[in-house]
Backbone:
């Protein structure tokens, strides 16, 4: 009786299906639907290249998410470091065989799709950190030895991604990692000290940035510095969102994006387009969907027994929230434009893949929530 | 067991940290929400305006010029439909190729192609280039046939200025051309309505009446994308047409006058002596204003510019001539008004052998054998110079200058209507001191008495001078633009009834005189001068006797004038050459002023033929034909006036 409760391996397929979080799937589907309409709108209401691709990816990766959900959580645990290693190798490969687009080298050609390994790394870092902290005792966490290892694990991919250059993804990877370190219970003082250190070193950090990144950051503080150059994106984005008003301009009626004033409207600025057409109301609904998704993931985290699952769920939830926050804060002008996609909404295969993969691990946590994971 | 408690502790820490993280998330979420609230609700209006500014771009369309008509509402300047081809630059894929195709289809020459490239450099990539302003119908239809091959080319129906009477009116109406920087800077109405390709008045009434004629530009609002390409038209505020300008010109008389001046260099002016309306203001040679509308070709421009008879000068108002003997009625009037002589004074003209002498300087009469004993009336009638030398000497130039100025010489007749109008010169001792910084010589007074020397007048001034005499000596305000607010019938009857009144106050001082007030001291003096002019035309030995009408309906009175362009030497006088033997540029200008009908006069006329020889031979016969025409047309003019007075 007891064994059965602790070991889901004996659950029938029907039992597993029953334990799936359908509400979460519904939320994901809703966001997916909205994303298809938004991409459709970027093409001026034509069902062509971007919409088609986006729809195909959504269907494929959503199915993948459902299928992968049935992988035992212990398998994810076992191969966590392998996953990290693969991500790292791919990142190194990008360095040598990467495909370049608009000045940065981020992708490798995997025949079926151009994969952006940094996106995969976003998940790998959470999985591997969750594993790392799973087995560490509370007392050990504060130990420098155990602190140094994850920091090295974190710095290597971040450095590789910054080199591409891709500041946004690098920040997201770092953020996710730090979130797990925080969750694992590292003493608050470390966070306080390191953020102070960061603040002090910020001017030096900025000085080693690429010129375009520097100008983005300077522009953030004063968008009118260069209204037709670096400030253009943020000014136009704010105009688009602001002119949307409460109810928005209506589906396919966003003049800013329709008339091509919006840059990157398929990818980083998809929220701008959505917000222009659906207004404050639509934006709030979309935000609510993301909040529901994050809330759901956190709830699953509380339901699971193993620290690995729990840390993963909390970590992924925080990461997901971070992605959404960074993207929206960026397009509304609260953060500098660093280049971060909006999960599920933004056009882009790798981003979609990593989010769906992350969600499938969450679902696996849910299905195998009663699985114990031994401490080795 | 330790492991177990430690695990519980670890779980507790994780949970606590999740809640702290959750609180942080809520804070961040609140931040985003309030930002969105700010953008989309508080500052919505600001961003809406910015968004419209982004997406809407305005194109101004040129205003429609008002039309210009003559007194009878015949159109003198209108807006004609023209066929044009425009290139929308952002739709043209290969500019060079398109121009090459267009060149073949509508037959552009190399110069035109060069101009197109020059024009293109000044335009923005989303602007429209006017390739050809005025296509013939065959070019236009051919263009439409090949349109599918020409991306970005647009056949356009536009309007352009057209002058139906072309050469006959260019000096009155003027012409239009592309607005220059100077035009834009100098006239507010042009600056306000400026649109690339705007045509503005360059001369004549087109220039001076710009404010009325120009109209108001229209606005086409287009939705544009980020690169400025037009997506759709949102709004079109139609341009408005300027007011029409009705002139006082009678196109029939004007046409006749231009016709009479054909192959001559000169001017004919006709004025209503009561209303001051100018019926005709002809100047010759002339040119076609339609050639300027789309930019004149350099060949045509050179031809006009290098013509020795100076077609660009409006001789009626910008040509300055010595009035010659046409001044004599004024000299006589001045002498009578100031009481210098009475009309019975006798002076003998003895011919070239015994000229008039003053301090050793000799002054000859034009008549070789002399006029004999002359009284004032005969001296005017036969235009005896000796008589006028003497009365001018007695009168003095300053008194003469007062009267000459009062009757319309020495100042602009039409004020601001023509930028090129000249004031002329009525000399006086003060004038010479101020302008030439020399003192006046009596000999100069003597020749001023026969309208030579420093005195310079325009033909229109002479016409006004004659009108002032003919209406009985009342000041009128000449105009070339119809004044519908003035009731001229009342004014005419008032002048006619005032004519015979006697006034106590003398009018001998230099003074401002209001319109429609008397200019004379004694009406008998005016009557005397008019009677002498009658004699000059209608009695034997009168200088223009050959050009008279015996029918009282057309009978007119006038005064000839022959103005020397160079000093006549004793050698010339001995040679006594025939006109054809003298070099053209040395020939005298022929002048004639007249008014008609003699009984109950209504119109005054001045004729000037540059280097035409004598006034009686070259100028008076033209006046005769014009007078016939204006008197024949008088009834039509009255009908129009009655109709408009009644309707008002």
Residues:
């Amino acid at each position: 009786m007891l064994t059965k409760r602790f070991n889901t391996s004996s659950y029938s397929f029907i039992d597993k299906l029953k334990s799936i979080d359908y509400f979460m799937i519904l939320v994901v589907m809703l966001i997916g639907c909205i994303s298809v309409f938004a991409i459709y709108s970027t093409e001026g209401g034509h069902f062509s290249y971007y919409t088609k691709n986006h729809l195909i990816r959504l269907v494929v990766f959503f199915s993948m998410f459902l299928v992968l959900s049935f992988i035992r959580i212990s398998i994810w645990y076992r191969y966590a470091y392998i996953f990290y290693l693969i991500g790292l190798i791919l990142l190194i490969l990008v360095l040598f065989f990467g495909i370049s687009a608009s000045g940065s080298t981020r992708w490798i050609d995997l025949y079926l799709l151009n994969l952006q390994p940094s996106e995969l790394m976003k998940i790998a870092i959470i999985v591997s950190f969750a594993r790392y902290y799973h087995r560490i005792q509370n007392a050990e966490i504060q130990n420098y030895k155990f602190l140094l290892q994850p920091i090295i694990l974190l710095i290597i991919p971040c450095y590789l991604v910054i080199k591409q250059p891709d500041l946004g993804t690098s920040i997201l990877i770092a953020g996710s990692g730090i979130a797990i370190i925080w969750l694992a219970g590292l003493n608050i003082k470390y966070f306080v000290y390191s953020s102070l250190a960061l603040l002090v070193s910020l001017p030096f950090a900025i000085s080693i940035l690429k010129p375009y990144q520097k100008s983005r950051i300077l522009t953030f503080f004063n968008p009118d510095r260069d209204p037709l150059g670096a400030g253009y994106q943020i000014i136009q984005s704010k105009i688009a969102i602001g002119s949307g008003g409460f109810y928005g301009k209506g589906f396919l009626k966003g003049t800013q994006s329709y008339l091509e004033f919006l840059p990157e409207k398929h990818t980083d600025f998809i929220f701008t387009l959505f917000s222009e057409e659906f207004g404050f109301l639509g934006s709030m609904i979309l935000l609510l969907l993301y909040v529901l998704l994050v809330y759901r993931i956190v709830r699953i985290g509380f339901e699971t027994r193993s620290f690995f699952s729990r840390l993963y769920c909390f970590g992924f939830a925080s990461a997901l929230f971070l992605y959404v926050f960074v993207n929206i804060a960026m397009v509304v002008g609260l953060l500098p434009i660093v280049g971060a996609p909006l999960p599920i909404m933004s056009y882009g295969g790798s981003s979609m893949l990593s989010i769906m993969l992350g969600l499938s691990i969450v679902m696996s946590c849910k299905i195998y929530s009663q699985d114990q994971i031994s401490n080795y | 067991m330790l492991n177990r408690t430690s695990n519980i502790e670890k779980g507790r820490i994780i949970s606590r940290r999740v809640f702290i993280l959750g609180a942080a998330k809520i804070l961040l979420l609140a931040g985003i929400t309030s930002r969105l609230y700010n953008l989309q609700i508080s500052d919505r209006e600001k961003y809406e305006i910015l968004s419209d500014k982004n997406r809407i771009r305005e194109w101004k369309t040129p205003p429609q010029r008002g039309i210009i008509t003559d007194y009878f509402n015949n159109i003198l300047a209108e807006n004609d439909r023209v066929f044009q081809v425009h290139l929308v630059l952002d739709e043209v894929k290969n500019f060079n190729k398109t121009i090459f195709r267009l060149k073949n289809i509508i037959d552009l020459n190399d110069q035109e192609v060069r101009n197109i490239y020059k024009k293109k450099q000044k335009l923005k990539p989303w602007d429209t280039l006017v390739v050809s302003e005025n296509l013939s119908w065959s070019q236009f239809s051919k263009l439409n046939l090949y349109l599918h091959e020409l991306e970005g080319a647009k056949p356009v129906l536009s309007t352009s200025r057209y002058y139906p009477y072309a050469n006959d009116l260019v000096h009155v109406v003027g012409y239009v051309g592309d607005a220059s920087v100077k035009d834009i800077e100098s006239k507010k109405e042009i600056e306000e309505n400026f649109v690339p390709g705007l045509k503005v008045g360059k001369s004549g009434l087109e220039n001076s009446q710009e404010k009325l004629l120009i109209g108001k530009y229209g606005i086409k609002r287009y939705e544009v994308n980020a690169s400025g390409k037009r997506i759709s038209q949102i709004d079109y505020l139609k341009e408005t047409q300027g007011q029409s300008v009705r002139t006082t010109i009678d196109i029939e008389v004007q046409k006749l006058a231009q016709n009479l001046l054909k192959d001559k260099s000169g001017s004919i002016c006709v004025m209503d002596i009561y209303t001051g309306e100018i019926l005709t203001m002809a100047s010759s040679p002339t040119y076609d204003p339609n050639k300027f509308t789309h930019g004149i070709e350099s060949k045509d421009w050179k031809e006009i510019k290098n013509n020795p008879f100076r077609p660009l000068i409006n001789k009626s108002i910008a040509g300055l001539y010595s009035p010659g003997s046409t001044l004599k009625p004024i000299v006589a009037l001045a002498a009578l008004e100031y009481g210098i002589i009475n009309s019975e004074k006798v002076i003998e003209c003895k011919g070239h052998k015994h000229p008039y002498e003053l301090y050793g300087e000799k002054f000859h009469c034009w008549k070789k054998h002399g006029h004999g004993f002359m009284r004032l009336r005969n001296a005017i009638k036969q235009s005896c110079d000796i008589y006028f030398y003497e009365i001018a000497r007695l009168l003095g130039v300053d008194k003469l200058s007062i009267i000459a100025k009062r009757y319309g010489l020495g100042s602009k007749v039409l004020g601001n209507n023509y930028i090129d109008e000249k004031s002329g010169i009525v000399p006086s001792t003060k004038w010479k001191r101020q302008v030439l910084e020399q003192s006046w010589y009596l000999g100069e007074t003597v020749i001023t008495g026969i309208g030579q020397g420093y005195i310079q007048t325009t033909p229109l001034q002479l016409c006004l001078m004659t009108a002032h005499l003919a209406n009985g000596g009342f000041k009128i305000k000449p105009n070339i633009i119809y004044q519908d607010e003035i009731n001229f019938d009342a004014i005419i009857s008032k002048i006619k009834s005032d004519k015979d009144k006697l006034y106590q106050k003398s009018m001998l001082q230099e003074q401002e005189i209001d319109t429609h007030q008397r200019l004379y001291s004694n009406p008998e003096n005016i009557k005397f001068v008019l009677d002498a002019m009658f004699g000059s035309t209608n009695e034997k030995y009168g200088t223009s006797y050959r050009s008279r009408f015996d029918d009282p309906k057309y009978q007119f009175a006038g005064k000839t004038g022959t103005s020397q362009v160079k000093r006549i030497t004793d050698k010339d006088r001995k040679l006594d050459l025939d006109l054809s033997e003298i070099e053209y540029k040395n020939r005298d200008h022929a002048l004639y002023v007249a008014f008609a009908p003699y009984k109950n006069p209504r119109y005054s006329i001045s004729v000037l033929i540059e280097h035409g020889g004598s006034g009686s031979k070259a100028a008076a016969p033209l006046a005769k034909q014009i007078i016939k025409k204006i008197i024949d047309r008088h009834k039509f003019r009255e009908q129009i006036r009655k109709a408009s007075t009644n309707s008002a």
Notes: DSSP finds 25 helices and 19 strands in chain B. Chain B touches chain A at residues 3, 6-7, 9-11, 13-15, 17-18, 21-22, 25, 28-29, 31-33, 35-37, 39-41, 43-44, 46-48, 50-51, 54-55, 223-227, 231 (CB under 8 Å).
